[in-house]
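Pinned message: reference record for Transcriptional regulator, AraC family
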Amino acid sequence: MIKRKDGFSGERALVVPHSIIEEMEKHPLMAPLHITDIGYYPKAEYHYRERREPITQYILIYNVEGRGWYQLDGQKYEVKSNQYFILPAGKPHAYGSYENEGWTIYWIHFKGSLAEHYAQGASKPIDILPTIDSRINTRMDLFEEIYHTLEMGYSRENLLYACSCFAHYLGTLRYLQSYRNASYNDSISSDPIMITVHYMKENIGKKVTLQELADNLGYSASHFSAIFTQRMGNSPLNYFNQLKIQKACQLLDFTDMKINQVCFKVGIEDNFYFSRLFRKIMGMSPQAYKQMKKG
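Predicted structure (tokens):
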């Protein structure tokens, strides 16, 4: 069986230098909770990692698509789409994706005196399922903000901001319902079209079929497509593609991601198809858009 630690198309990873970690460990605001490694692996087929010698970091793995597994304390756990878990520091472990079912994961290694408190109860898989108030896409944007801040360099201000954002990020997972309630909008809770648009945004990085969108409302595919098109002036899947390209534009504008990385972030694996779709909707190539002066 093929086993790979890294080297996945569209992947990103950043390892904080040891000297910077030592600096954070001495700072009163950063010592309680700080990141040592952070990354994103899309469609990571044959992903595998085993550590027989324990490490000092906690490891958060948030699986947004696909299936995987991990072993801890002699027990094997199955990990489905929209689940996360945190491996405790100081314990041997192994994890990976299943053959032909590569998972898409956000992962963060972290340390500090508060780490064990945020990790409490998360050694088993925890569901983060899309709902009308789930705010999954907002959480993904927060991850990107942390990553981009660290990518801009290890100034004291960057490190402090990344640590502050990371505490918030962990809070969105640990205090899930409070996070969801914080911006719950009653006005869309009974509107099937707005429910669908919210579902699309929460699943912007995935392939979603017309039948899945209809099933989310309990409608037949034909009835759902008819009412959506009448209301929004576009078919559901065309509208979803517009949202994907809108998100791609934001990533091109506000991150340093390469175009092939942006593809995976919006759930499109084929670079050529992404470029054609982008040009069709925006009237220019992704490269031209990225170079265009705005504002």
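Pinned by admin. Summary line: The chain has twelve helices and ten strands.
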